[in-house]
UniProtKB/TrEMBL annotation:
Entry keyword Iron: no
Name the record gives this protein: Large ribosomal subunit protein bL25
CDD domains in the record: Ribosomal_L25_TL5_CTC (cd00495)
Assembly: Part of the 50S ribosomal subunit; part of the 5S rRNA/L5/L18/L25 subcomplex. Contacts the 5S rRNA. Binds to the 5S rRNA independently of L5 and L18.
Domain Large ribosomal subunit protein bL25 beta stretches: 100-185
Domain of life of the source: Bacteria
Assigned GO CC terms: cytosolic large ribosomal subunit
Gene Ontology molecular function: 5S rRNA binding; structural constituent of ribosome
Keyword Repeat in annotation: no
Biological source species: Chlorobaculum thiosulfatiphilum (Chlorobium limicola f.sp. thiosulfatophilum)
Family (UniProt): Belongs to the bacterial ribosomal protein bL25 family. CTC subfamily.
Role: This is one of the proteins that binds to the 5S RNA in the ribosome where it forms part of the central protuberance.
Length: 198
């Protein structure tokens, strides 16, 4: 997984401080690590936005003004419900030998016969997968080959564990649906009408 550098400033936690930072184009954030005190920081809104809206996951090298740097990843982001701007972020520190849990985006590849031949539509039920493993083993994204999917088929988390990178475990409900190939609307409507008539 690629590591991206992000410059950070320490900040004081006080009344109206967060709003003032946002007016200056900065996002209040925190850095935490199990067993250590949480550190309050601020980051440039545009730089953070590029990481948050990327189609890949990244490890982030937080670079402080005093020359210190720590490896982390984005654990949580809060958005403004009206403007959709990032208004707060949580970074989780880690050490190289530590097992971490992080969300990784899903990428699809291949041509789906259920779509090409059957006229169906791919429905992506989740856009990220929660993975557990060592940072160096974490993929930037989780690739799923849809060329095996026929009309009406669904891939669940349990089906994806066999294609996970070595040393990586997919978390969550094993029966959770990840991708489905839906029948064409006319067919599904006809099936529903037939069921209702029966």
């Amino acid at each position: 997984m690629e590591t991206r550098a992000l410059s950070v400033n320490l900040r004081e936690v006080k009344k109206n401080e967060a709003a003032k930072l946002r007016r200056q184009g900065r996002v209040p954030a925190v850095v935490y690590h199990k067993g250590e005190a949480t550190v309050a920081i601020s980051v440039d809104e545009i730089s953070l936005g590029k990481l948050v809206h990327s189609s890949e996951s990244h490890l982030i090298d937080l670079q402080y003004q005093d020359g210190k740097s720590v490896l982390s990843f984005i654990k949580d982001v809060q958005f403004d419900p009206v403007s959709d701007r990032v208004i707060h972020a949580d970074f989780q520190r880690f050490s190289a030998d530590e097992v971490v849990e992080m969300e990784v985006p899903i990428h699809l590849e291949g041509e789906c016969p259920g779509v090409k031949i059957g006229g169906g539509k791919i429905q992506i039920n989740v856009h990220t997968l929660p993975l557990k493993g060592k940072p160096e083993a974490m993929p930037e994204h989780f690739t799923i080959d849809v060329s095996i999917l026929e009309l009406g088929q669904t891939l669940h988390i349990r089906d994806l564990q066999t294609i996970a990178p070595e040393g990586i475990q997919i978390l969550g409900d094993a029966d959770a649906s990840v991708i489905s190939v839906l029948a064409p609307r006319k067919e599904s409507e006809a099936a529903a009408e037939g069921a209702a008539g029966a």
